[in-house]
Amino acid sequence: MLRADGLLVSDRSVGRILREADLQPHRQAMWMTSQDDDFRDKRDDVLRVYYHTPAREHVICLDEMTGIQALERAHPDLPMEPGRPVRREFEYVRHGTQCLMGAYDVRRGKLFGFVADKRGTEAFLALLEHVDACYPEGNGHLVCDNLAEHVSDEVAEWLEEHPRWTLHTTPKHASWLNQIECAFSLVARHVVRRGSFRSKEELRLALEADMLWYNEHGRPFHWTYRPKSWDRKPARTSGGRH
Questions:
Q1: What is the longest distance spanned by two Cα atoms in the chain?
Q2: Contact in structure between 135 and 164 (CB atoms under 8 Å)
Q3: What is d(CA 57, CA 66) in angstroms, rounded to the nearest whole number?
Q4: Residue pLDDT, tens place only, 173-215
Q5: pTM of the model
Q6: Cα 148 from Cα 152, distance rounded (Å)
Q7: Is residue 197 within 8 Å of 206, Cβ to Cβ?
Q8: Integer-rounded Cα radius of gyration of the chain
Q9: 237 pLDDT exceeds 70?
């Protein structure tokens, strides 16, 4: 492009200039801007839950890890050697997908839930019941994104029947505010990325085993996001739908 503009400069000089300026034009990063008109209110509400919820109340993040493929590699991996990483055969056999209906206890750093064939309102209600059974006493806060099945009429009815739980939704395109996404990234690294599964059942067992391991060894995330524009007013502590 420089030469097209009539500038006479060598490739070596361009490389030196880019290195000195710490610029990497061959790389790019992507992001998605939230167009939610209530972004700040929803963001601040979730942050107040994380930072200001009384110690006696539960803080549980909910979400679905969908489309987890049960892929069976056509040939075994070749182990790493000095100077050479693990090598994996490209070809694989598909055995279907599973969905991890997950719940993450922010304060205890525990991931739990169940594996389903697909997501939906019925599966999400089952997850709510699962959380309610795991925490039979005390008020609590549920953080999730604004997926349709998370804010459906059926969920609203469930919350009315279980007033000790308060639902808090993240802004549109801001699921990164949900701490369970951090836990899901670890599941992907531990189970999915290098896994080879001969069936959906084998994948399900691997996901369940990882949750058991996580519950024994997991620790709360060191959450530090505090934007300058954050409204730090104390969170509400009463139960019911938010």
A1: 74
A2: no
A3: 29
A4: 888 999 999 999 999 999 998 889 999 999 999 999 999 998 8
A5: 0.81
A6: 6
A7: yes
A8: 23
A9: no
Cα–Cα–Cα angle for 43, 47, 50, nearest 5°? 145
Distance CA(100)–CA(76), nearest Å, equals 26
| Strand-pair partners of 61 | 104, 143
- The whole-angstrom distance between residue 174's C-alpha and the CA centroid of its chain comes to 11
Residue that is written with structure tokens 């990063």 in the block: 29
Three-class HEC string of the chain: CCCCCCCCCCHHHHHHHHHHCCCCCCCCCCCCCCCCCCHHHHHHHHHHHHHHCCCCCEEEEEEEEEEEEEEEECCCCECCECCECCECCCCEEEEEEEEEEEEEECCCCEEEEEEECCCCHHHHHHHHHHHHHHCCCCCEEEEECCCHHHCCHHHHHHHHHCCCEEEEECCCCCHHHCCHHHHHHHHHHHHHCCCCCCCHHHHHHHHHHHHHHHHHHCCCCCCCCCCCCCCCCCCCCCCCCC
